[in-house]
Amino acid sequence: MGPISRSTLLRTVLGAAMSTALAGGAAAQGTNKTVYFLTWGGTVQQTLEKEGWGKKFTEATGYTVQLVPKATGPEIIAAAVAQKDKPQVDVVQSDLLPFLAGNDQGIFVPLDEKDIPNIAKLAPVARINANAIMTYGDVMSIIYNHEVFAQKKWAEPKADWAELMRPEFKGGLVLPPVNTTYGLYVLITLARVHGGSEHQIGPGMDALKKLAPGVIEWPTTFARMGQFLQDGTASVGFYSSSSAAEMAKRGIPVKYVVPKPLFFTGTAAGIMKNAPNPEGAKAFLNWWLSKEVMSFRAERYGNVTMNTEVTNNPIPVAALNDMQRIDYAHVNASRAEWIKTFEREVLPLK
Q1: Which one of 3.40.50.150, 3.40.50.2300, 3.90.1300.10, 3.40.190.10 gives the CATH number of domain 34-137+264-324?
Q2: Where is the secretion signal located (predicted)?
């Protein structure tokens, strides 16, 4: 399956988002006890629905939470922007990069510690701006099928991003495409490995051109990537360490390494301006940031959570002081052109 064009993806997602949200919006406004949470499915859906934390939220606050799931950060924010004039969701959570783009559209309200007291317990790095907080995040990693490595007698990857360029991996790579947040991290990482940066992206694009003939697929989700790594079709991928850990828990024969310097991908959350249930939104966001919920996310999914009371983070929050800083404003301003270049000059090489 090749990557879907950005315009087609947005049209499909916006239509689905609006129909889903409109169907539930009337109920939210009628009872004022339902909080609509626009974010991913995946581990968030598993947390709230299968692992019972949605019920715990109701027990703690009297509100119920209804998930409005999407596959990727850009889809989440596209759905939020589409309902800007008449919001049908209350809380939005996505990757940091698309969230910042949504914030530029004026769709979120300022967050006040008086209304959401758990904000005061977050690490300073978590306060992105007046309208956004970072709930948790992940460090990027190289994921590999250890059974394939053993069969082929390959040396396990070193903690070095340049390992992605090893010639023996040709024909066994799965990398997220540049029209996704993680794909942008691949591009920026490779640019820096080869002497560039987000301000000089050419070396990264050149590296992708070299890798492209050996890429099996450019999957947009970790579930899709996991399918290729599980059956041995692929041997090496690039994704978050928490996703790699989740693959292993699901029985996929993978291990991962976290190269230095660290690349951290943050998850941002905020409350929609003119949300149908603003009080419920504040209650949910405060609960979502709590020590109890974030400790579970750290233990179960390996997230690096921002609540400083959490004691089981996979890496200390203080370690983020040493992470690679990214000029997110420049990335968001440049991403459309980078995607065009990727689709025009890299994808045809596969």
Answers
A1: 3.40.190.10
A2: 1-23
Distance CA 272, CA 346 (A): 37
pLDDT per position as a tens digit, 150-163? 999 999 999 999 99
Structure tokens at 67: 């998930």
For the domain bounded by 139-262+331-346, which CATH number is listed?
3.40.190.10
CA distance 250 to 305: 22
Q: Residue 64 in 3-state DSSP?
A: strand
Q: How far is CA 62 from each of CA 92, 112, 272, rounded to the nearest angstrom? A: 20, 21, 21
Q: Is 234 helix (H, G, I), strand (E, B) or coil?
A: coil
CB-based burial, 309-318: b 16+ in 10 Å, e otherwise? ebeebbbebe
Say whether the peptide bond before residue 261 is cis (omega within 30 degrees of 0): yes
Q: How far apart are CA 204 and CA 201, in angstroms?
A: 5
- Predicted TM-score of the model (pTM): 0.77
What residue spans in the chain does CATH classification 3.40.190.10 cover?
34-137+264-324, 139-262+331-346
Instruction: Give the residue from 120, 27, 103, 139 showing the smallest Cα distance to 273.
Output: 103
| Amino acid found at 255 | K
